[in-house]
Structures are given as structure tokens and as C-alpha cells.
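Human: Note C-alpha cell order:
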Amino acid sequence: MTPDQYPTPAHGQPMTRRRLREIERARAGAATPSEPPTITGAQRAVGATLGRKRPRGAVAVILMVVVVLAIVAVPVVLSRSGAGRILGGAPAGGGSGAALAADAPIDSALTVTGRLGSTPALSLKGVLAPPAPDQVITDVLVQGTGRVVNEGDGVLLSVSRFSGTDGANTTGSPAGRRLFFGRLDAGVVGGAIDAAVVRAAEGSRIVLRSSVQTGAGARTTEVTVVDVLPTLATGQALEPAAGTPSVALAEDGTISVGLTGLSAPTRSTTAVVIRGEGGQVSATDTIVARYTTVSWSGGTVRTTNYGWTAAPGTIDMTDTLAGLAQGLVDVPVGSRVVLSLPADQARGDEPVAVVVDVLAIVEGGAAPSDAASAPATP
């Protein structure tokens, strides 16, 4: 017997080591069951929920499609039905959508941003419930430091309206605001604005909340923002050049122009004695202004609208004295300008001194009558 052979079995063939290993492997395979395929955690959870074996083939694909559709479709249905708000969503516009009392404190109801005299922006913190039809809620957001306005005084007001439901600007003008320049009169500006502006200081921003009726007959809140703008130049005082006429302001708001010792001008000169910080005047603008024209020969006043009880006027830069149109270009709003004009740059009859306080620019070239005849009222 060789070392590679074992005793032969009954059929007489020799048992080699190779043959013995094959037999042992066959026996081991028959005794050990095959390993089942791996089941994932997600499959085990789905199988347990359904109470049956893990789905295979087409059934598994259909089940997956159903699960995906449920995940996508349920939130959409909830959001369209309004139930999404319960889950923490917020409706568009009107701040958080929460209803606020008509007389809620102004800080908890809304915020107003924007420079005084520019178109303001309104942000609501909820939908404002309308006040009673005869009630107007008035708040002073900015306390001005200028002169106090009395009934019948000349005023310059910038007025914007907003919806108390979604905060939209409802003023109805391209600029989103309207200018009123005239004497303060309840019959012109409306009783609510008149009551809010009387005894207010120039430079103030006032917010009015009132009730208005919609076309459907319901009532809603209207928010009116009123800026009480200065009616005299405000800005940095500058030292005028030698030969510039002097200007003195009286207590009643009128001015006097000093020409003593000054030679009549032979060419136009312009001196900015107070420099404002507003927008610059262009050659095609219409501006709201205080102005006075004084004869150089006799020192008499030819025209003026200075004085607290006088209404500010307008200057159309395309239709005014040649010297005035040239001298006011690029001057910032809020400035006071003193112009010395020879006869050919004035009315053609004599040289004059002109003082102008630039108060505002009428947006879009609107005619002064348009701006003044459409004051906003709550």
C-alpha cells in the first residue's frame, strides 16, 4: 500500500486522499443549510407592518411607488387646504397672518421705514382689524424738531396709503406718495389729516389707521403715513461769496433781502447759502419752493411766498426765468439759493435778486395742480 492510498472500499477501488476530501465536503454541504439573503431594516419594517413576507419583484415596485406618492402628495393637499398653517406655515402677505386688534400698539402692529419725505415702506405684523367707522387711531412715529404747524399755515405734506390687510401701497400714484402744498385746511386735506397735523412739528412722521369700505361692502383697515415736511430750507449754513445779497428771516417766516452797497449784476451769479441733503434738481423738474424776487434798483419786493401763513409754490424748470433755470440745476432739495440776475436773465426790464428755498421735487413731472388737488384722507 502506497502512502497515497487508504484501504479500498467494498467495490475494491483504492481510496485516495483527494477522493476522501471530496466525500467530506459533500457531507458538510448536505448538513449545512444555505444562507438566506440579507433583509434590510426598511424591508423588515415594511414586512412587519404588512404581516407578511418581504415582497419581491413587481409587488415590491408597486409598494415603493405607493409610499413615494404618499410622501409627496400629503403635504401638497394639506398646504392647499390651509391645514399647512397648523404645521407652522404662514400665509403670504399681512405679516404672520395673525389678526390684530384695531387699537393694537403701533410697535406690535406695523413698522414703517424710509427717509422722511421719500416713499415709505410698510411692513405689517398681522392683519389689522378695522376700527369703528368714525374712529381714527393716530400715532407719531417720528417727532420733528421744526416749527409747530397751526391751522391755516402753509404746509408741505407727503402722504402715502397702505392696505391694512397685506401692506400693499394703495396711494394710486406712480411714486407711491402724493404731495400736498397749500394752507392747512380740514376742507382740503380732510378732517383726520388736519387733526393729526395741527400742532405737529415739521419733520414729524404720523401714522393714521382708519376704516374704509371695500367694493364688496365689507370694511377693512387703511393705513395713512403723513410726513410733515419743512417749509423752509434745512441743511448746512455756508458762508456766501462777497457781493452776495444778504437774507434775514423774521419771526413770521417772511424774509428780507439786503442789497445796500451792492452793484447791479452784469452777469448771473448763484450762491448756495444753505445746502440741503435731498435729491438734486434737474433741468426738467417741477419743484416745490419758497421764493422771493426783489428789484435791484429800488429794493422793492416784486413777488414772494415766504411767511408761515403763505402756501409754498412751484417752479417749472422748463418755463421760468433763464437765470433761475440755470442757477437751480443740481441744487439739492433743502437748500437756499441766492441768485443775482441781470435784466436779460430775468424779466428783461431790470436786474433782480432772487431767493429760493428748494423744498421738494414733484415726481414724474406731474403738474402742481395734480399734486395739490389729490390729498390723501383716511
